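In response to reviewer comment 3 from the previous cycle, which asked for concrete evidence that the modeling workflow produces usable outputs, we include below a single protein chain processed end to end. The sequence was submitted unchanged, and the resulting structure tokens are shown without manual editing.
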Amino acid sequence: MTDWTYSDGFESRTEIANWVNVAAFVLSVYLLLSFAVLPVKYTHRHYLSVCLTLGVVFMELAFIIPLGTKPAQCFNEITPNDMKSSGSCAISGAFLLFGGWAIVMWVFVRALALHLQICWEVVLGDKSFYTALVLGWLIPVVGLALTLSLTGVSFRFGNVCHINHKDALQDYWGPLLAFAALALVLQFVTIGYCVQVYVKSLLDDKPTTNTSSQPPTYQGSMKTVTARQTYRRVKRVIELQWRGASIVLVIIAEVVFFSVVFVSMDNSTKVDAELLQKSQRWLTCLVANKGDKNKCLSLAGGLVKSEAVVMAVLIILGLSGFWCLMFMGRWSMTHGWAEFFRTRLFRKSEFVSADARRFSNDPRTYEMLSGATPQLNIQTPDRALTSPRMRSEFSHTDTKQDLYGSGRAYVTPVASYSHPTPPTQHKEWDPRSTHARPIDVSGKGLEMNIYPG
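The workflow returned the following structure tokens.
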């Protein structure tokens, strides 16, 4: 149908999108190689970034394969080839659908992870990693299987197979837009929370001095500290994740754009009474001009989307690789590759000191390859290295006398108000101060009462 509703050369112009995807594919491969080869300090790689880039690569392969296979788009004069009659159509259509699913799912997973980290302070661990893998790859596989079995793909415009218009909204575009909408809602909620935290930190950022006579309350000070701590935490996360948040918004905008275009194209080409009535003037023009489509292109504009819109959709599909490199690539990757080639290609031979063989002829003693502990060559130290004073010259009494023999005089500190007093003389106990009788030393005071038996 595109041969009759679009101008001459439209099919050849659609190959521009294929070559755009070739350039984007090169950038995506560069990004993946950087993630795989370079250290983390140069790439800051994360499994969310790696998996999203892989999804973009699958979509780019859908546009690269037809450049090599040069598939025939028409099965006969009125029927295009589909996935059953053309292997190239089946492969390119499968890559396109799976890549779209993978991109949307990993964008959703990234938006969900960012929302959990910022709004709920959730630390992503191993469970989150495996859950993300299941959501990011299993759902696209299931979605691809259902779409190919229920709807299928065929040549509609260009040399890449797209999903058929029959039940495409229920089988593919509907679920795809649902996950894209969830990702967009999560992203807006996260942005709103960040704005709220920022405004709250500005309102609570007041001087700590208090002019009133009442002391500051503990509850008010804790609220201020909590708001500032939350702002610092959110600011730190945004500094680390702003690239991921930006690519989420860009990819969702792309998905919404080409989804709306494809759905409107499906609705406009649905064969029914309304379509026959709209195309009556165009068909009459073709009959009157003996099949000259160029004289009837103005009438066909109301039946299909314009060439500019279709070309924009195809090119935007290929820009995903550029967005990935723009937001997930870093200038430090170039320094990492320079360091990689410098150490691999221009590496000099390692220097081995000759002193390593001085103490032993067995090289295993310094290469640490032997399982047993090597014998150490231990010798008695020379007399010049011993102490000039032997241990027997010291005596215990001399040492003790040096430590405890001398006493130091007490010096009164300048700022001290206490003065030492001399010890008092010994005073015996005075029995007259109590009721006890004094002791008679002569023994006269002692009396013995004898009771008669």
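The two ends are 155 Å apart (CA to CA). We consider this sufficient to address the reviewer's concern, and the full set will be provided in the supplementary archive.
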